[in-house]
Design brief:
The complex is a heterodimer of chains A (469) and B (192).
Chain A: H1 7-14, E1 16-18, E2 26-29, E3 32-35, H2 41-50, E4 60-63, H3 72-75, H4 84-100, E5 103-105, H5 115-122, E6 130-133, E7 147-150, H6 153-162, E8 164-167, E9 171-178, H7 187-198, E10 206-211, H8 213-216, H9 220-228, E11 237-239, H10 244-251, H11 259-269, E12 282-287, E13 294-296, E14 304-306, H12 318-327, E15 342-345, H13 347-350, H14 353-363, E16 373-376, H15 381-389, H16 392-399, E17 402-403, E18 424-427, E19 442-445, H17 448-457, H18 464-467
Parallel strand pairs in A: 3-4, 3-6, 4-5, 6-7, 9-10, 9-12, 10-11, 15-16, 15-18, 16-17, 18-19
Antiparallel strand pairs in A: 1-2, 2-8, 13-14
Chain B: E1 6-14, H1 21-24, H2 44-47, E2 70-73, H3 85-93, E3 97-100, H4 105-112, E4 117-120, H5 123-131, E5 136-140, E6 145-147, E7 154-155, H6 160-168, H7 172-177, H8 180-191
Parallel strand pairs in B: 1-2, 2-3, 3-4
Antiparallel strand pairs in B: 1-5, 5-6, 6-7
Classes of the chains: A alpha/beta (469), B alpha/beta (192).
The complex binds iron/sulfur cluster.
Iron/sulfur cluster binds next to helix 13 of chain A.
Chain lengths: 469, 192
């Protein structure tokens, strides 16, 4: 019998075109290459300069999400896109895809959305695949038991030209999550707690595998929130073993295998889980049952406290002090006192249907506090349609929130959806870096429930007070 | 890409830890469709005031930073977004090496592909470098050593293949393209 293997090792081994040697990295075959308008133009230029073609257009899919407008009139109404350079980038992607024969889900396509949301929706994100995209949150797709990671633009060019990447084999880290998440504590809170524990560089060089009771109990939407933020702990990829939940999700997606091919695929997918006795290079344990809703107070996702907690003090740490100064917050202050000007629900972290339901559940019959601007941006046009069909959009609008077309939007503020200088934003996105949501913007990362509760109270709020009624 | 064998330069020190790629190039500069001219956007939110004027107190605006090709950063540089615009901007500005105690994976990969050397050093070397901004140091790629004044030479690790590419000014795409028959064999194996 061969030695027990981790899921990562199985997927890696199945994709080695040539193995790693003392002098060269492994050549790894890529099963799915997702691409978007921001990190691809220079890669297509490289192909042109070298006279190369896209090797496997059948394994390549493009969409637009990062710099695309979310205002209906700009998406469907023919109104000019407000940022000229963004409009140019969108036109460039259309041109590149047409020239190189790559399928594009363009601006008005009903299947368009954030690249990490549409892969799973279409059913092209599948267990055992290697998936890359010129975007660090490609780790999201690992929720299906795929090995999925972000790459730079030069590597986008490599994959376009050869369908392969040169890779050094990473190490493995098991994140063992014991217990169940309490009511009002969402997967977002769990992953923030994990990042707080591991640190923002603790995962550098590792692939995470999330395991344990709390993970197994999660839906696919929830598992994606967890894997999505692996990169915020420095890990390029995060994986979750495929199981019945995974298969049930994929079965009804348009591009999953059908008929006999489906049965063959499921039989293979069932072999992917980590074998008993397989060794990880590192193990981190966390107890889900003791967690509370979490909120960040600083300028990286590791600076996080429970919603009932206070901002810590780190005497003599100038970097920590600078982060608090940027945030306009003080050590010892309770995070629940932090003011709120903007609330953003959306992004590839928390822009799926289940996230919108959670936020709507709190907003139902309530109003967004006076002076707070709340923006709800579905992660894809499909999420938008489903949310409208369920009446969620109405709940948001009645509460006084804005409801938009899908895209990255205020997660990185490239399309003009930004938070003003010095304003506080409670955001369901994944990065609270300085200026991430706009120049001088102050971001507090939280779950969709915490974001909605904070919108209602106009300050950082514990969502559990709205759930027990 | 020009071959790199040795870099000798004074250092610029930015002691902040966890400098993420959103700081290196803010998102609003990513609507470009080329690599050129990104040096202007480098650290834009720290470098310029609200009116776009250079802030005199920011290190890259000081006269002593001019001509420096080595950036010494606080613990863990390059985390966050995979944007290759970050190394493009650093290179366009004139940097050839970045030194820290930890360097995030994607940023490190992206840097190596653009002739920007990511060098991880131990805590003690790092503290010395942080405390001696403007020190004249030398990076010797052939021997993978860092020479710092009045201290023993420090060796750093770098993937042999990346070093080969950097020292010969070749890029990895050529190597991948040379594997065409292996890739074809893999594809037909998978189809079977
Ligand atoms: S939603 Fe945010 S994190 Fe996700 S792909 Fe878009 S910009 Fe990146």
């Amino acid at each position: 019998m061969s030695a027990p293997k981790t899921m990562f090792e199985k997927v890696w081994a199945a994709h080695e075109v040539t193995p790693q040697t003392a002098d060269t990295p492994a050549v790894i075959f890529i099963d799915l290459h997702l691409t978007h308008e921001v990190t691809s133009p220079q890669a297509f230029t490289l192909l042109r300069e070298r006279g190369l073609k896209v090797r496997r257009p059948d394994l390549t899919l493009a969409t637009m999400d990062h710099s695309t407008p979310t205002r209906t009139e700009q998406v469907f109404g023919g109104a000019p896109i407000s940022i000229e350079s963004a409009a140019k980038q969108i036109r460039q992607l259309e041109k590149n895809c047409a020239e190189f024969g790559v399928e594009l889900l363009g601006l008005q396509d009903s299947r368009r959305g954030i690249v990490h949301i549409i892969g799973p929706e279409l059913g092209i994100t599948q267990p055992g695949k290697t998936i890359v995209c010129g975007d660090s949150h490609t780790s999201t797709h690992g929720a299906f038991g795929a090995l999925a990671f972000g790459i730079g633009t030069t590597e986008v060019g490599h994959v376009l030209a050869t369908q392969c990447l040169l890779q050094k084999k990473p190490k493995t880290c098991a994140i063992e999550v014991r217990g169940k998440l309490p009511r009002g504590v969402m997967p977002k809170d769990l992953i923030l707690a994990i990042i707080g524990k591991v640190g923002v560089s603790g995962g550098t060089g590792y692939v995470f595998e999330y395991r344990g009771e709390a993970i197994r109990a999660m839906s696919m939407d929830e598992r994606m929130t967890i894997c999505n933020m692996s990169i915020e702990a420095g890990a390029r990829a995060g994986m979750i073993a495929p199981d019945e939940t995974t298969f049930a999700y994929l079965e009804h997606t348009p591009r999953a295998p059908k008929g006999k091919a489906w049965d063959t695929a499921v039989a293979y997918w069932k072999t992917l889980s980590t074998d008993d006795g397989a060794r990880f290079d590192k193990v981190v344990e966390i107890d889900a049952s003791t967690l509370e809703p979490m909120v960040t107070y600083g300028t990286n996702p590791g600076m996080v406290v429970p919603v009932s907690g206070r901002i810590p003090d780190r005497p003599g740490d100038a970097v920590f002090d600078a982060a608090l100064k940027y945030m306009g917050l003080q050590s010892g202050q309770s995070i629940a006192d932090a003011p709120v000007n903007v609330v953003f629900v959306g992004s590839c972290t928390n822009g799926r249907l289940i996230d919108l339901r959670a936020a709507a559940n709190i907003l139902r019959g309530r109003k967004v506090a006076k002076g707070v601007h709340m923006l709800v941006v579905p992660g894809s046009q499909e999420v938008k349609r489903l949310a409208e069909a369920e009446g969620l959009a109405e709940i948001f609008k009645e509460a006084g929130a804005e409801w938009r077309e899908s895209g990255c939007s205020m997660c990185l503020g490239m399309n003009g959806d930004t938070v003003g200088k010095g304003e506080y934003s409670v955001s369901t996105s994944n990065r609270n870096f300085e200026g991430r949501q706009g120049v001088g913007a102050r971001t507090l990362l939280a779950s969709p429930e915490t974001a909605a509760a904070s919108a209602v109270l106009g300050r950082v709020a514990d969502p559990r007070q709205f759930l027990n009624a | 890409m020009n071959p790199i064998t040795r870099i000798r330069s004074r250092t610029v020190v930015m002691p902040s830890s966890n400098i993420d790629t959103d700081q290196i190039v803010p998102a609003r500069f990513l609507t470009t469709t080329s690599k050129d001219g990104l040096g202007k956007a480098l650290f834009a939110d720290w470098r310029y005031d609200a009116n776009g004027a250079p802030r005199a107190d920011f290190i890259l605006n000081k006269p002593e930073a001019s001509g420096c090709r080595i950036l010494v950063a606080g613990r863990n540089i390059g985390c966050g977004s995979s944007r290759e615009h970050a190394p493009w901007a650093l290179v366009d500005f004139g940097f050839q090496a970045v030194i820290s105690t930890e360097i995030a994976d994607i940023f490190k990969n992206n840097s190596l592909k653009n002739g920007l050397l990511p060098i991880v050093v131990d805590e003690s070397t790092h503290s010395w470098l942080i405390e001696h901004p403007g020190a004249e140091i030398e990076i010797d790629l052939a021997s993978s050593t860092l020479n710092v004044p009045a201290r023993p030479a420090v060796s750093f690790s770098i993937e042999p293949f990346a070093r080969f590419c950097l020292m010969n000014g070749v890029d990895e795409l050529g190597f991948l393209l040379s594997k065409n028959s292996e890739i074809e064999a893999y594809e037909s194996r998978r189809r079977a």
